[in-house]
Amino acid sequence: MIGALCRFLGRACFAAIFLASAAHHATNIPEMAGMIHKDFPAELVGGLENAAKIAVGLMGLGGLLIATGFAPRLGSLLCAAFLVPATYFQHVLAMQAATDEKTKKTEMIMVLKNVAIFGALVMLFGYECGRTAPTAPAPSGGKKGKKQS
Question: I need a surface site. Which of 12, 21, 22, 70 has the fewest CB within 10 A?
Fold first, then answer.
C-alpha cells in the first residue's frame, strides 16, 4: 500500500513540471512560438505556432500519462520528445552564444537540470508498470518435488 502511494506521489510530483509548463504555455501559443530559437526547423511542422502547439501537446499528454500511471512509458517518450530538442535549441545554443558569464552559467544550469530530468524519464521508461523490485531468480539445482540438503 505504501509503495503504491509513494509511486503515485513520485510520478505526480515529477509530472508536475511538464503539466504546469504545458498549462502555462497553452494560454499564449504566439508568445511560446516567439521563444523558439531561430535555428529550430519549425518549417517541418508548418511553422513556429504549430511547433509550439506540438510542444504543449507533448508536455501535457506526456505529463498526464506519467502522473496517472496509465501509460508512464509512453508519457516518458512524449516528454523526452519535447525535452531533447528544447534543451538543445533553447539552452545549449544560448549557452554557446552567450557573451557574459552570468548568462553562460544560467544556461549551463538549465542544461544540467534538463539532463537530470531526461535521466529520470529514461529511468521511468525502464521500470515496468506496477513492478516494485527485481524478481528473484528461481531456485536451481534440484529436481521438482525433491528437497535439497
Answer: 70
The model's pTM is 0.83
User: Which residues of the chain, if any, have pLDDT below 70?
Assistant: 128-149
Instruction: Name the CA dihedral angle for 14, 78, 90, 110, rounded to a multiple of 10 degrees.
Output: 20
Q: Which residues of 25-53 are buried (b: 16+ CB within 10 A; e: fewer)?
A: bbeebeebbeebbeebebeeeeebbebbb
Tell me how far apart the alpha carbons of residues 73 and 125 are, in angstroms, rounded to a whole number. 5
Contact 40, 89 (CB under 8 A): yes
Ordered DSSP codes for 94-123? HHHH--SHHHHHHHHHHHHHHHHHHHHHHH
